[in-house]
Amino acid sequence: MNATRNLATVALVLVLAGAAWAEPVLVGDLRGIFGATCRVYRDGDHVGVAVRMDGVLHVVALQRDQAILLADTLEDAWESRMALSVGESRIAGQVASPSGNSVYVAVNRKGPGARPIVAVAAKDETLGCAFFDQAGQVRYLANTLRRAAR
Predict the structure, then answer these.
(1) Which long-range CB contacts under 8 A does 76-81 form with residues at least 24 apart?
(2) Contact, 43 vs 20, CB < 8 A?
(3) Measured between alpha carbons, how far is 81 from 119 in angstroms, rounded to an integer?
(4) SS3 category, 53
(5) How far apart are CA 76 and CA 29, in angstroms?
(6) Which tens digits make up the pLDDT trace of 28-53?
(7) Which helix (H) or strand (E) element contains residue 119?
(8) In 10 A of CB 127, how many CB atoms?
(9) Domain extent listing, the chain
(10) Buried b (16+ CB within 10 A) or exposed e, 3-21
(11) Residue 107 pLDDT > 60
């Protein structure tokens, strides 16, 4: 766990600041329903979204206003989840970072029992997704993004 946190911190320092003295602060993390985790970091004027899926870390550095947009997109996706038909999925939104990487929010109603699931996907060279199926999880992640953007 500490090795994972250290690796995420080092990766975020290199991505966000490009300077050895920068120290990103972990604002919050959340484990998804299929084991992937989503962590939110703050470093100066940037907010980092890091998704660890299957042992691979995917990091996207956002500006503060983009982090707030992502929080709003998450909440909108959760609110609209029941409008999906069983078997349907859709991308609720995308926030592109200045570096060209993106964070996507999707809603899926294809899972067991066709319960709605909100996915947060960080796309750097590859794509990592964390899935959430409870209002408290989505609210926590949205509020964490807003705290990091302050």
Answers:
(1) 77/105, 77/106, 77/107, 77/118, 77/138, 78/107, 78/118, 78/135, 78/138, 78/139, 80/107, 81/107, 81/109, 81/116, 81/118
(2) no
(3) 11
(4) strand
(5) 20
(6) 999 999 999 999 999 989 999 999 99
(7) strand 117-123
(8) 14
(9) 2-149
(10) eeeeebbebbbebbbeeee
(11) yes
- Domain 2-149 is found in CATH 3.40.50: no
* In the block, residue with structure tokens 């750097």: 124
Q: Which amino acid is at 68?
A: I
Structure tokens at 26: 């972990």
What 3-state class would DSSP assign to 13?
Answer: helix
> Average pLDDT for residues 90-95, to the nearest whole number?
95
Q: Looking at residue 22, what is its pLDDT?
A: 63
Burial 49-63 (b: 16+ CB within 10 A, else e): bbbbbeeebbbbbbe
